[in-house]
């Protein structure tokens, strides 16, 4: 299926891969302790700071994003530490659970699914608990497509000299502005198969100076994810364990592509796809699920008489387009369309047209052929008028 030219991968990760990056992935293997690879690693570790918008070092770990989330926790926390976890979906739940697993004393702020956390709720809880060691938040809660107010949360956390602001930016860093240093983020993790437009297998993370004050004495068990080993190895021009040669070489190409077009343009293109999906989702009869929608993924509530899981499956089996459904309480109620990765305009037009046909398949009264044809024409025009 994935070898066909008419297949569209429009999930919020993994994402479709740029042809130039695919070429890099097909190169013959080289050893990671070679001058050739050393050069690539050095270049990547320098260039990547531009995307993180930080002066701090960035680390590349061979793990999925969740491994990077774990690395942020175990390197900064000790058992018994008080942690405020913002939970508004699956990934917030996972991080709160992980922190509890490592012995943190977790205070949870639950925001309803589809909503962003209220900054004042975090402010109040921090006032009552000034001994909080870390505030945990997703930049984009991928399960609900909500963007949390990271800049505002960073401002509040900065007022507490011993409280760290840790951000899971796996579907945000590289998709929209999230300047780590300027926003007072103390630990941040990105993921290769999401905004970094690579296959799964790398987590990318960085710590602020403030976080480094706590790293030496953190008592949570850490071995593979001990960032001190990685820091030392990176300073010597290597990674501590075997380098992920294939993905780091591919990351080099991604970073080159980003630097050629500029971060602004990357963010613009993703924003444009999100805008397009929100506008044409509404025209097709969906409504927006997220009240503060992220640009990296859009969640659309399906018409009440329909089942989102069936829409997702039909779109894949009949039209060769992969999007995602909802999880848990959103299961069947929403579909999610990803905007990260290598996506071309003709895929967006086809998405609108095929979603129209899919809705018609389940309810021919809901969607006429004429309506599908009109919306598809409008979609083409919109993309031409909004480059
Ligand atoms: C995908 C995702 C994760 C988990 O990443 P894995 O690579 O599957 O471990 C964590 N947080 C967010 C916000 C995500 O979107």
Folded structure, characterized:
The structure is a single chain. The protein is an alpha/beta fold and 387 residues long. The chain has 2 domains: 8-14 and 262-385, Aspartate Aminotransferase, domain 1; 19-260, Aspartate Aminotransferase, domain 2 (3-Layer(aba) Sandwich), CATH 3.40.640.10. It is 42% helix and 16% strand. The chain is built from 13 helices and 15 strands. It has helices spanning 19-25, 35-52, 65-74, 90-101, 119-128, 150-158, 209-212, 227-235, 245-261, 263-283, 308-319, 345-362, 369-385, and strands at residues 8-9, 58-62, 82-87, 105-110, 134-138, 140-141, 146-147, 164-168, 187-191, 202-207, 287-288, 297-301, 321-322, 324-325, 334-338. The two termini are 30 Å apart. The structure holds pyridoxal-5'-phosphate. Pyridoxal-5'-phosphate binds next to helix 3.
Q: N- to C-terminal separation?
A: 30 Å
Largest sheet: 7 strands, mixed
CATH top level of the largest domain?
Alpha Beta
Kindly state the percentage of residues in helix. 40-55%
Q: Could you give me the name of the CATH homologous superfamily of the largest domain?
A: Type I PLP-dependent aspartate aminotransferase-like (Major domain)
- Structure summary, number of beta strands: 15
Principal-axes geometry comes out as: globular
Can you list the ligands bound to this structure?
pyridoxal-5'-phosphate
The radius of gyration computed from the alpha-carbon positions, rounded to a whole number of angstroms, is: 21 Å
Uncertain segments: none
Please indicate the percent range of residues in DSSP E strands (runs of 2 or more).
15-25%
User: Order of strands across the biggest sheet?
Assistant: 2-10-9-8-5-3-4
**pLDDT average, as an integer?**
97
Based on the coordinates given, report the CATH architecture of the largest domain. Answer: 3-Layer(aba) Sandwich
What is the number of helices?
Answer: 13
């Amino acid at each position: 299926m994935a070898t066909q030219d008419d297949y569209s991968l429009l999930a919020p990760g993994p994402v479709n891969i740029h042809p130039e990056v695919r070429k890099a992935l097909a190169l013959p293997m080289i050893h990671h302790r070679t001058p050739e690879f050393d050069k690539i690693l050095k270049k990547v570790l320098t260039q990547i700071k531009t995307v993180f918008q930080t002066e701090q070092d960035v680390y590349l770990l061979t793990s999925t994003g969740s491994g990077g989330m774990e690395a942020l926790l175990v390197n900064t926390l000790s058992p018994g530490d008080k942690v405020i976890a913002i939970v508004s979906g699956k990934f917030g739940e996972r991080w709160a659970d992980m922190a509890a697993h490592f012995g943190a004393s977790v205070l949870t702020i639950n925001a309803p699914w589809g909503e962003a956390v209220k900054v004042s709720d975090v402010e109040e809880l921090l006032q009552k608990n000034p001994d909080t060691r870390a505030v945990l938040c997703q930049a984009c809660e991928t399960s609900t497509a909500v963007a949390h107010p990271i800049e505002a949360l960073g401002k509040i956390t900065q007022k507490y000299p011993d409280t760290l602001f840790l951000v899971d930016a796996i579907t945000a860093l590289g998709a929209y502005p999230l300047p780590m240093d300027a926003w007072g983020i103390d630990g941040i993790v990105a993921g290769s198969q999401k905004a970094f437009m690579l296959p799964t297998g790398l987590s990318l993370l960085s710590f602020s100076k403030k976080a480094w004050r706590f790293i030496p004495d953190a008592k949570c068990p850490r071995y593979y994810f001990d960032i001190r080993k990685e820091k030392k190895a990176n300073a010597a021009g290597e990674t501590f364990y075997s380098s992920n040669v294939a993905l780091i070489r591919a990351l080099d190409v991604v970073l080159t592509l980003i630097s050629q077009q500029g971060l602004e343009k990357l963010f613009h293109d993703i924003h444009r796809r999100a805008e397009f999906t929100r506008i044409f989702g509404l025209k097709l009869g969906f409504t927006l699920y997220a009240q503060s929608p992220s640009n990296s993924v859009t969640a659309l509530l399906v018409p009440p008489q329909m089942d989102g899981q069936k829409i997702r499956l039909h779109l894949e089996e009949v039209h060769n387009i992969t999007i995602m459904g909802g999880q848990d309480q959103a299961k069947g109620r929403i579909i999610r369309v990803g905007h990260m990765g290598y996506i071309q305009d003709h895929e967006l037009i086809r998405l609108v047209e095929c979603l129209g046909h899919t809705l018609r398949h389940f309810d021919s009264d809901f969607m006429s052929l004429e309506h599908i044809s009109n919306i598809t024409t409008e979609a083409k025009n919109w993309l031409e008028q909004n480059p």
